[in-house]
Amino acid sequence: MNILVINCGSSSLKIQFIQMETKQATAVILCDRIGEKNSKIKYSTITGEKREEQVYLPTHAKAIRVVLAYLTDAKIGVIQDLSEIHAVGHRVVHGAEIFSDSIQINETVMEQIEACAGLAPLHNPANISGIIACQELLSMTPQVAVFDTAFHQTMPSEAYFYGIPYRYYKEHGVRRYGFHGTSHCFVSKQAALFLQKDFTKLKMIVCHLGNGASVTAVRDGKSIDTSMGLTPLEGLIMGTRSGDLDPAIIEFIAHKEKKTMEEVVEILNKKSGVLGLSEGLSSDFRDLLDGYQSGHAGAIRAINAYTYRIAKYIGAYAVAMGGLDAIVFTAGIGENSGLVRELICNRLEFLGATLDHEQNNSAKGNRCISKDDSKVELLVIPTNEELSIAEETCKVLGVCFDT
Questions:
Q1: Per the residue annotation, which of 32, 101, 148, 402 is the catalytic one?
Q2: Same structural domain for residues 215 and 343?
Q3: Beta strands 326-330 and 377-380: pairing type?
């Protein structure tokens, strides 16, 4: 069975074409700067075919049309006909309280996804554009929506309520929702398989550390708390996002800098985080880690604050779960930066989590990086959100492939 996995951003389109019997992506496509004159497409296949070119992509619909042409191209394509696309799995960022699981898309589901757009105005409209384009171009192919927020719908109310008038929740849905749910779900299950333990009987903390970052407490196979909130701005210090802060800061900066509330929120989303703390050095952690090693004051400040915040959340979530079996690192930074993992784990020895420095700095792939006598397992598990979306799509359609 072949699944086309689509992730529509506001000006980008990421696609993988996954063959489910082998769990491999036979084609990977990135369309960037959609709507701009210098938009481009990158295409690669499992057989080594590669193409990168500038193509004007005025809309997501046009981008998807171009992608389908690549997939069926006589020379570089991986299929001969669009009928070989058996289903489409769409990443949808926000499902609010409406969706606690993935679902096959129909007219009613589309209306409900559109109703969630006010909670994710930068993301859901782009996700909707991708769905509409696929419905037009692949009208006979089943479409499935997989929600970033769904995994976190098991959070208890004490974890998701804000200390604000209750009517804002009842009337406007203002609560903590959490994101990166597809990754947290996939990685926590893979961690249980790696440990050869029952997923439903583990207490683990998953640290999804990329340019966007979040930490989730997974107890007995369910998310019981997570660091992101109503939007992805809450929680950890990230690449360009501030993470947690005193909300009065928004008014304070607006007054001092003579800016609107919208302008300050833009700064908190796009000019803050490690970029802001490093005084503009970079939001790219590769640059920051180089700077940390070479003694750059801004890089040291940013990395220390970043890793402290992560360790603090881990400690809090160990309390929330009443114990801890494993801490799992994933995503670009979590998987690849031994230094970041070390700085975090150095603060966690009181929990009985002791790092094996050799394993932390040398091994690759799924691995344990804790010492043999560590009371808490420290793991690195690469995430694969696209495969997770493909698996969810198959599950919704009643097709099962052994993991």
A1: 148
A2: yes
A3: parallel
